[in-house]
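Target chain:
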Amino acid sequence: MSAASARTLLRVDDLSILDGQDRVLVQNVSLSVDEGETVGVVGESGSGKSLTLRAIIGILPSTLHTTGSTTLTQTEPGAQAAAMVFQEPGLALNPTLRVGRLLQLTWKKHHPGCSDKEAKAAAIGLMSDVGIADPPSRFDAWPHELSGGMKQRIAIASALACEPGLLLCDEATTALDVRVQAQILALLQTLVTERGLGMLFVSHDLAVVSSVCERIIVMRNGVMLETGRTEDVLTRPQHEYTRALLDANLSRRMHAATLGEVMR
């Protein structure tokens, strides 16, 4: 899809988030995401990136309120404009529902009039789409019977069940080990490419964000400090905080590589 023909799925203008005492937690955030585009939001804990995602999809705590505007565009009539994938899949899934049944019910909720048989077939199809081998045999599995990576695949399938145009990923790979993290990142990239989705991906890890995102937004203390094409931000950072993130990320990964060599 060419940039000229891509629709804007999300537009945020001057979004601020305030608490009950009108203290500003996030200040004047503006961003957009188009079809087939991946945008990353990176920053340390408390930078306001996850709050921003929750404000976009409308699940902020009742003690917080917003100013500014957020516009989400439906890609298909009746489809949900956006869906969210959370950090901890074990908490995102319902422990009292078998994973296939969860997907089946989610599909039915967003496709009124769909029969149980049709919804089950759709659920199995979604499980296949997110790379779960032999989906029929996994349909009746409980969440606690699955690995962390498999749970996250189910969580992604659940998000896809409402056929969103935009995926909001809130630290979606942080709870996974490095190998599984790479698999989930590859899956998300494939979904964006094959389905023409937009994706807004939040992480504290600049390397993770840069591996999947075309544009990057750097946040700290609720403020956007820098934004630009990934290559530009990585090679020519304009803000000292971005440079500090790059240095910290390099140091952490060099330490991990050295530790790995020592433990071999």
In short: Residues 8-95+164-263 form a domain with the Rossmann fold fold (CATH 3.40.50.300). Strands lie at 8-18, 24-34, 38-42, 65-72, 82-85, 166-170, 198-203, 215-220, 223-229. Confidence is low (pLDDT under 50) at residues 254-264.
